[in-house]
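User: Can you predict the 3D structure for this chain?
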Amino acid sequence: MPPKVDPSEKVEVWISNNNNNNNNNNNNNNNNNNNNNNNNNNNNNNNNNNNNNNNNNNNRMMETNKKRKKKKKKKKEKEKIKKFFLRVCGGEAGAMSTLAPKLGPLGVSPKKVGDDIAKATQPWKGMKVSVKLTIQNRIAVPEVLPSASALVIKALKEPPRDRKKEKNIKHNGNIPLEEICKIAKTMRFKSLAVDFKGSVLEILGTAHSVGCKVNGKSPRDIQAGIQSGEIEVVEPK
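Assistant: Here is the predicted structure, written as C-alpha cells:
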C-alpha cells in the first residue's frame, strides 16, 4: 500500500513548480529584450555613422562645387570686355593716377596704357580728344573718338604748340567748305539733323564757336547762304 499523502502538500508542490516556470519565462523575456535593445543600439550607431559619412561627402562636394564656380567666375571676368572713356591731350600720356584704381584689379599696367594712349593720339598733338579704352584679357586697346571741334581745329593745320607755355590760343585760320562737308560726313553718326544739309550747318556752328573762317567768310554768312539756297551742299563720296 502506498503511503498516504496530504492534499495540501500536493498543492504546494504544484504552486512552486508554476512559480519556477514563470521565473524562467521572465528571465528569457528579459534576455530577449536586452538583446533587442543591443541590436537597436548597434543599428542606430551604424545609421549615425552612415549619416556622418554622407554629410562629410556632401560637404566635400559643396566645397568642390564652390571652387569650380569661383574658377568659372574668374574666367568670365577675364573674358569680359570693359570700356573706359577718357579726355586727354593728344600726344601725352596724361595722369594715369585716376585710372590706376580701375586698371589695377584688371591686371593692366597704367604706365603701359598711358604709353599706348600717347602713341594713338600722336596725330592730335596739342588738342583735347576723347579716347575709348577697351580692355579684354589684360590687353588694353585705345581708340580716338574725335569731336567736331577737334576735327575743325585739325583742318586748320596749325603747327603744334606747347599748351603749358601758350595759353588762350586763337584759331583764326580759314577752312574750305569742302573740308567742312568732309567733317560733317565723319560726324554724321552723332548728328541729330534729318539730312546732310543740317549736319553741315551744325559743323559751321562749331567753326563759328572755334573762331575760324570758311571760304574767307564768317560761318554765319555761309549758314545763311545754305539756308537761302544760294550755296549748294554736296555730300562727299
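The two ends are 153 Å apart (CA to CA). Confidence is low (pLDDT under 50) at residues 8-19.
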